[in-house]
Amino acid sequence: MTLNDPTIKKPEQPQLFPGGLAASGKKQVEDLISLQKEFSEYLQEVNQNWLAHMRSEAALATQFATKLTATRSIPERATLCQEWTNRRMELFTEDSKRILAETQKLMESSLRALAIGWPAAA
Predict the structure, then answer these.
(1) Structural domain of 97
(2) Is the peptide bond before 119 cis (omega within 30 degrees of 0)?
(3) Number of domains the chain is built from
(4) In a domain, 121, yes or no
(5) Which listed site, 40, 50, 55, 61, has its alpha carbon 20 to 30 Å from 95?
């Protein structure tokens, strides 16, 4: 008798994970990886949007300061301040809409994470 004798029945290895459980776990891990990738891309997008926003804010402030120093009269300054205030209100409205949309997208991702069981319930 040798160790590689095909007639010798080897003891079965116990299955640590039944087939259905392993497949379910694999799908859950794949879903989590997909969700993590989506969340990472989302954060990059938000970062880029806010960086662009800060640049436009800086450009607006620089433009305002330049125009303000060039004005010669109080009525000119009042008109310039009114225009600047109007533009700031437009930007505030755009910011509010963007924040609302970003928050909604984040909540949808969070709900999907909970739906697939992440983090796992204790």
Answers:
(1) 31-115
(2) yes
(3) 1
(4) no
(5) 40
* Overall size of the chain counted in residues: 122
pLDDT tens for the chain, 122 residues long, are 555 666 666 666 555 555 666 666 777 788 788 888 888 888 899 899 889 989 989 999 999 999 999 999 999 999 999 999 999 999 999 999 999 998 898 888 778 777 766 555 44
Question: Which of 94, 106, 98, 110 lies closest to 43 in space, CA to CA?
Answer: 106
Q: Determine the Cα–Cα distance for residues 52 and 35; give it in Å rounded to an integer.
A: 26
Give residue 66's identity as a one-letter amino acid code.
Answer: T
Residue 120 lies in a domain: no
CB atoms within 10 A of CB 37: 10
Q: What is the DSSP string of 53-71?
A: HHHHHHHHHHHHHHHHHH-
